C-alpha cells in the first residue's frame, strides 16, 4: 500500500493552528500540593482560567507521584521535574520532540538555580517572582 508511516507526514499536513516554530504551549510551576505559583500559556489550547485550572489539577494528579520525566496527557507532551517543594512543567504538542522540551525545562531550572545558587524552593520563588517571570520570558519567547 501507499500509506505514509505514522510520524512521516508531509509539512503540508500540519494544521495552520499549529505552526512548528512554536514548541512550548505552556510552562507551569506548581507547589507540592498542586497549587499554581506560575503559569504561562502561549497558545489557545486552554483559553479560559477554568480550563487552565482543570488542566493543572489533571497534570498534577497524573505526575506528582510518578518518577518519570515525560508524560503524554490528552494529546500533549509534558516534561516535568521536581525540585524541593516544587514541580516544574513544560507542555508541548503531541508531535513535539521531548528532548527540545527537556532542554527548555533544564534551562529554566539551571537559570533559577544560578539566581539562587542552590536548589529552587517555594519560599524563594514567592520572594523572587519578578526575577522568575523574567527568566521564563527570556527562555520562552511567546512559545
TrEMBL record:
The gene is Copz1. Oligomeric complex that consists of at least the alpha, beta, beta', gamma, delta, epsilon and zeta subunits. CDD domains: Zeta-COP (cd14829). Belongs to the adaptor complexes small subunit family. Transmembrane segments: none annotated. Residues 23-143 form the AP complex mu/sigma subunit domain. InterPro entries: AP_mu_sigma_su, Coatomer_zeta, Longin-like_dom_sf. GO terms for biological process: intra-Golgi vesicle-mediated transport; intracellular protein transport; retrograde vesicle-mediated transport, Golgi to endoplasmic reticulum. It comes from the Eukaryota. This is Coatomer subunit zeta. It is a peripheral membrane protein. It is found in: Cytoplasm; Golgi apparatus membrane; Cytoplasmic vesicle, COPI-coated vesicle membrane. PANTHER family: COATOMER SUBUNIT ZETA, ZETA-COAT PROTEIN.
Amino acid at each position: 500500500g501507499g500509506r505514509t508511516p505514522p510520524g512521516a507526514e508531509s509539512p503540508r499536513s500540519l494544521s495552520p493552528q499549529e505552526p512548528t516554530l512554536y514548541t512550548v504551549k505552556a510552562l507551569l510551576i506548581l507547589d507540592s500540593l498542586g497549587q499554581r505559583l506560575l503559569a504561562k500559556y502561549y497558545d489557545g489550547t486552554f483559553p479560559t482560567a477554568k480550563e487552565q485550572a482543570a488542566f493543572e489539577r489533571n497534570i498534577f494528579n497524573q505526575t506528582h507521584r510518578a518518577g518519570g520525566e515525560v508524560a503524554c496527557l490528552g494529546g500533549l507532551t509534558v516534561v516535568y521535574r521536581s525540585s524541593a517543594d516544587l514541580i516544574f512543567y513544560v507542555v508541548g504538542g503531541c508531535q513535539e520532540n521531548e528532548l527540545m522540551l527537556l532542554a527548555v525545562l533544564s534551562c529554566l531550572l539551571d537559570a533559577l538555580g544560578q539566581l539562587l545558587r542552590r536548589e529552587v524552593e517555594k519560599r524563594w520563588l514567592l520572594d523572587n517572582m519578578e526575577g522568575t517571570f523574567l527568566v521564563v520570558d527570556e527562555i520562552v519567547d511567546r512559545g
